[in-house]
Design brief:
mainly alpha; about 45% helix; two-stranded parallel ribbon; 3 helices; about 150 residues; elongated
Length: about 150
């Protein structure tokens, strides 16, 4: 629900919904009309500027619902209510990891394919690696020689 940022009107009355109101509903900033009446909703109404602004009749017919704008006060906060936000975040991370895996596979296969299929590319890469190895060896020997001369 939190992804529908431009939602202006939501009428879910008389649908026999049960459970709690998702916390993501409090993130809807353009919502000007809301009717959740006559369902079987329970728990605390999520705290957010939009949801407390609606009349209590928007939530009537839900005997286990509590918090402003209703007159029924809630007891302790329920940890269960926050799971909805985490579950929505988990879905977006799955897509991120799938994209990262596909990108790695294409990149790895592209480099390996170029090395296997293209003779000049393969020669250039391995010659460059050999040159870098020789250069690093010379630099280490020179620095090691300076260090030995310094401590003599």
């Amino acid at each position: 629900m939190g992804r529908l940022k431009s939602l202006e009107s939501l009428d879910l009355s008389r649908n026999e919904f049960s459970g709690h109101i998702p916390w993501s509903l409090a993130q809807l900033t353009f919502l000007s009309y809301l009717d959740l009446s006559f369902n079987d909703l329970s728990g605390r109404i999520p705290i957010g500027s939009q949801l407390q602004r609606f009349c209590y009749t928007s939530y009537s017919g839900n005997p286990h619902l509590c918090g402003p704008p209703l007159t029924r006060r809630c007891g302790f906060l329920q940890v269960v209510e926050k799971k909805d936000v985490k579950e929505e975040d988990d879905d977006s991370w799955k897509l991120y990891y799938i994209g990262m895996g596909v990108g790695f596979a294409f990149g790895f296969l592209g480099i390996c394919g170029a090395l296997i299929l293209n003779h000049l590319c393969r020669y250039f890469v391995f010659a460059s690696l050999s040159h870098m190895k020789d250069w690093m060896y010379v630099i280490m020997v020179v620095h090691f020689g300076k260090l030995v001369r310094k401590f003599r």
